[in-house]
Fold this protein.
Amino acid sequence: METFQNKVVWITGASSGIGECFAKALTAKGAKLILSSRRREELERVKKGLNATDSDVFILPLDLLDTSKVDELTKQVIDKFGRIDVLINNGGVSQRSLVKDTPVSIDRSIMEVNYFGTIALTKSVLPYMIQQQSGQIIVISSIVGKFGFYLRSAYSASKHALMGFFDSLRMEVYKDNIKILIVCPGKIRTNISMNAVTSDGSKHSKMDESTVKGLSPEACVEQILNGVKNNKEEIFVGGKEIFALLIKRFFPRLFSKMIRKQKAE
Ligand SMILES: NC(=O)c1ccc[n+]([C@@H]2O[C@H](COP(=O)([O-])OP(=O)(O)OC[C@H]3O[C@@H](n4cnc5c(N)ncnc54)[C@H](OP(=O)(O)O)[C@@H]3O)[C@@H](O)[C@H]2O)c1
């Protein structure tokens, strides 16, 4: 994609962290935005902080747990802007609980939000992109979409599932000029660990040490937008932790030893 000027961009998880930074960066590039997440008041706060005209930012609350509403929400976007150029599947929830302590109901809820919610929204937007014969979908997976980690079994599984789904979709819609960029962030300095789900469904409410030291969400978004500009299919964003992906690929036994020694937080 050459430019975001006047492009209609739908961002999920726009109320904080990486999604909020997307909203700021894309406003500066002249895009028209749809901001979605559960908390309307936080979306209003993000909108107020943008240097954009009122009519160019549409607040559309969305709970990725409830896929029954996605077609109606997509119709509202089409009624307002007439098209959807870019879908940023960013909304999601992390996990901090051991497999042995986690009931399947929690595994399912993480999968519902991160995987089924995301693919339901994508399927609802897809017919419009196919009709337009153009579109860009950005999917925020994770480095744990490539390998497992302590306390994140369902989260890691949900991100692995996204990789398989969107790699397949990319092949199917190549002929329709729809591009798919999968992003695997490492540690990004957001509230992700605060909002992570524990074994009883409550929030973890702790900032991980490694998250505090992570890459800024602004730098993360800048790298993702460069990935779009350079027509990438998959990118890794973060600090030295992203080298783990190379070590796993070329030295899998060494990787296993190294990753076991990491702090389980
Ligand atoms: N930060 C990292 O280190 C890191 C690393 C790898 C991948 N990621 C991924 O990056 C994405 C953004 O996370 P972040 O780091 O910016 O964390 P964050 O600050 O916790 O943001 C998560 C966003 O997702 C939204 N969300 C959560 N549950 C939702 C639901 N049921 N329905 C709709 N929206 C929901 C939240 O908004 P509401 O609460 O208003 O719904 C919020 O806007 C996530 O997919 C995450 O897995 C982050």
